[in-house]
Amino acid sequence: MDLEKRNKLLYLEQYINTMRPVFNTRALFSDTSAEYVSPAEPDAFSRVKIRFRTAKNNVDYVCLVWRGNKYLMSKVETAVHFDYYEVEVLLKDEKFSYYFEITSGKLVCYYDMRGCTRDVNEYYNFGIIPGFSTPKWAKGAVMYQIYVDRFCNGDKSNDVLSNEYCYIGEPVVRVENWDQDPATMDVRCFYGGDLQGVLDKLDYIAGLGVEVIYFNPLFVSPSNHKYDIQDYDHIDPHFGKIVDDEGELLPSGCRENRLSTRYIKRVTGFNNLTASDELFAKVVEEAHKRGLKVILDGVFNHCGSFNKWMDRERIYENVDGYDKGAFVSADSPYRSYFDFNDESRWPYNPTYDGWWGHDTLPKLNYEGSKKLYDYILEVAKKWVSPPFNVDGWRLDVAADLGHSPEFNHKFWQDFRKAVKQANPGALILAEHYGTTRDWLQGNEWDTVMNYDAFMEPVTWFLTGMEKHSDDFRENLLGNAESFWGAMIHHTSSFSMPSWQVAMNELSNHDHSRFLTRTNHKVGRTNTLGPRAAEEGINKAVMREAVVIQMTWPGAPTIYYGDEAGVCGFTDPDNRRTYPWGREDQQMIQFHRDIIALRKKYPELREGSIKKLGSDYNYIAYGRFTRLDQCIILINNNNCEVEKEIYAWELGTHRSGYMKVIFQSNATGYTLNETLYKLNTGILNIKLPETSATVLKFVQNPS
Predict the structure, then answer these.
(1) In 3D, which of 493, 495, 476 has the Cα closest to residue 484?
(2) Cα–Cα distance between 177 and 640 in angstroms, integer?
(3) pTM of whole model > 0.85?
(4) CA nearest to 524, candidates 536, 535, 532
(5) How far apart are the first and last CA of the chain?
């Protein structure tokens, strides 16, 4: 062999030995979970280690980029088929926003919350908020929402009586038939559900596997929904206890609530209020004994026209122990709590500012009253402190509070300080539609009701329906790319501590029941009638939705009765009573089993999430840690499909098995385990029609 040929062979050998495999973008991964950010919730001015994952020997450089500054990351570990790069940074007392730049030969790409991308967009940067943490108990916790009047009547002696008082111009009604559908004008109809009923059913709730109860408002209020608070200091005796029950109902034809002496005695009498507060404290105590946390609904943007500070109904006007309301007198100590447009109209001044123009919902004027501001902060502290010991607040229309964005943010910053000082383990979550990031910077709300990054994408993908059942869009039904686009875009507003506690609902008191959305009927109970909400429903699609809910990051929240097969169009039909004795037992057991699965496998509650595939009516994703990996496959087609999934992307071995641990289908669900052998880390599987399949990686089947 001549020298030239020998040198050429040596060159080729050297080239082959140093040649990198094709750049593997599927292997790239990072997020802000505990496995990639350590510590996961760092303090200000502390050091934090940030990691990034690549395929083994596949890249030249990985840099973390922050404000245009590049920090070269060092390869610190090789495991399975991945390399792990790491850099340590010193945080300041401000949000640390970053992305990654990966170089392989002449190829350069970036990695942010969208995954691997060719462009840089600050909106999708990863974010760490020093000093911000959310309660450990709430991370991934399963919640249960109770609309109390419709859950269980445990004490008939506290029921609202027909003609007890007037609400929005007509007498209230006691509904005698628990199974009766809600009326079109349902707000003044009462079924009698109460806290004693909740006490009676605590074992049922705990038996579902639920970890948190979220109550719709419980404070004194004239409506069944109680979002028009009458007295923030006390639980409504109609939900609690009535020990002094004197006075008369309204005379026939009378509409003046100042004459509703029975109602006045019930809701202003301190014996009734104290007994009701004590019963609520007992409910919380009994819930805690069962390992259940409790969240209250806080309505602080507005109160109600019945409120003792306003007293438009003149309920408190002549009751000992109460000051005159702002409607009654210009000299009321509560005058500054509200905006009045005509100073010449007292006594009985009706010109106050109502939220969205509703005179039944006076808007609270925090800017005009430091006394009101401080009082509400005391209310916030009171209920998360002994003897009540509530575990958190859900905040109604939280972005509307105040008269300017600047004031709104100042209030919620002070609210957070007050609540966390009183109870450091309390959760603060807010109702909000639209972009949330302005309030999720670590100094206001912990998280939100997750409409944009959960309820809406799941609803559109599985049903094509708008969340009120007001529209059907065929172009969004089964549209997996739209699903992933919405999920990724809106999730980018969350830091990891906020995302882990986000309230992931399928239904609630403001929207149609998810099971009804599966029938694709556009309308409401006043146009189609309540029976239409039950026609053509698809329980298999409902099961798919619940599997997504129970395998997605955040806090899955069940709206009472969803687990029992309750249907309903949007408010008021979504507020049907819990069907005791008429439950869908298969659906209840399905919920028990999928909740148990979530709690059994920590990757489903705490792990990272990675998109593994999408197609028409099909999505695939993984939940995983370094030690454990699960794959979730949703086939919303009405036919069987065969799919190939790269399980190795989650960190599984190239050999081994994926074991089905849960599968719902068109007729029901099964826990029977089926093994699928991996071929070089790839899973090939046939999925039944309208199915949801959860698989777990096992190296050696037992």
Answers:
(1) 476
(2) 44
(3) yes
(4) 532
(5) 57
How far, CA to CA in Å, does 72 sit from each of 50, 82, 125, 322, 335? 12, 18, 18, 67, 61
φ/ψ of residue 687, rounded to 5: -110, 130
Do the Cβ atoms of 436 and 454 come closer than 8 Å? no
Residue pair 142/598 in contact (Cβ under 8 Å)? The answer is yes
DSSP 8-class letter at 323: P
Asked if 635 and 663 touch (Cβ cutoff 8 Å), the reply is no
- In this structure, the dihedral spanned by the alpha carbons of residues 449, 452, 456 and 462, taken in order and rounded to 10 degrees, is -110
For 508, the token pair is: 């609630």
Query: Among residues 363, 498, 338, 495, which one has the least CA distance to residue 430?
Result: 498
Q: Give the residues across from 632 on adjacent strands.
A: 621, 694
SS (H, E, C) 371-390: HHHHHHHHHHHHHCCCCCCC
3-state DSSP: the chain helix, strand, coil percent, rounded to 5? 30, 25, 45
**17 Cβ partners below 8 Å, 6+ apart?**
none
- Cβ(171)–Cβ(162) below 8 Å: yes
pLDDT digits (tens, 9 = 90+) for 374-421: 999 999 999 999 999 999 999 999 999 999 999 999 999 999 999 999
Q: How far apart are CA 323 and CA 268, in angstroms?
A: 12
The amino acid at residue 26 is R
Give me Rg for the CA atoms of the chain.
28
Long-range contacts of 247-250 (CB under 8 A, 24+ apart): 249/161, 249/162, 249/163, 249/164, 250/163, 250/164, 250/165, 250/166, 250/171
- At 519, list the tokens: 């029938």
At residue 33's C-alpha, the angle toward residues 28 and 37, to 5°, is: 85
SS3 at position 279: helix
Separation between Cα atoms, residue 304 and residue 320, nearest integer Å: 21
The two tokens of residue 93 are: 């007392």
Strand-pair partners of 635: 618, 691
Answer for the pair 461, 476: CB distance below 8 angstroms, yes or no. Answer: yes
Query: 11: part of which helix (H) or strand (E)?
Result: helix 3-18
Encode pLDDT of 137-173 as tens digits. 999 999 999 999 999 999 999 999 999 999 999 999 9
Alpha carbons 346 and 297: distance in angstroms, whole number: 33
